[in-house]
Amino acid sequence: MQRPPIEQQVTFLYTADLAATAVFYESILQLPLVLDQGVCRIYATGGDAYLGFCQALSTEAGSLPPTQGIILTLVSPEVDAWYEYLQAHHVPIEKPPTRNTHFNIYQLFARDPNGYLIEIQTFLDPQWPKPVIRNP
Fold first, then answer.
1. What are phi and psi of 27, to 5 degrees?
2. Could you tell me the residue ranges of all domains in the chain?
3. How far apart are CA 98 and CA 117, in angstroms?
4. pTM higher than 0.85 for the full model?
5. I need a surface site. Which of 49, 94, 105, 126 has the fewest CB within 10 A?
6. Which CATH number fits domain 68-136: 3.30.720.110, 3.40.50.720, 1.10.10.200, 3.40.190.10?
């Protein structure tokens, strides 16, 4: 049996402050808002990939899932330009542009208003993207 197609991809994350999140992703990262559902906003990141943020139903202590261990990765050939751009918009930088020899990428890390780690990277492997072939 053949696997059914996947046409798009959306990653949804929770936020305690949808308004601040909207400012960051719309005004600073300038991602196009493709759907405003009131309590959720969905942004195009490229191709048929999307990022959605939903207002948490309760902002009481401990009600939001932890942001630790989550990395939102955006792929761009201009990591250095993103670094300058994010600095100019006072976005907290966790790690300036650095070559990661283990993964053969060039990357930077920043934080969004929710505490999510944002990675902007470019693949240095000239074979990227390529299909992964696994032995059964």
1. -90, -40
2. 7-56, 68-136
3. 16
4. no
5. 126
6. 3.30.720.110
Q: Which of 63, 81, 70, 89 is nearest to 120 (CA)?
A: 81
Per-residue tens of pLDDT for the chain, all 136 residues: 877 677 788 998 989 899 999 999 999 999 999 999 999 999 999 888 999 998 876 654 456 667 777 899 998 999 999 999 999 999 999 999 999 998 889 999 999 999 999 999 998 887 666 555 555 5
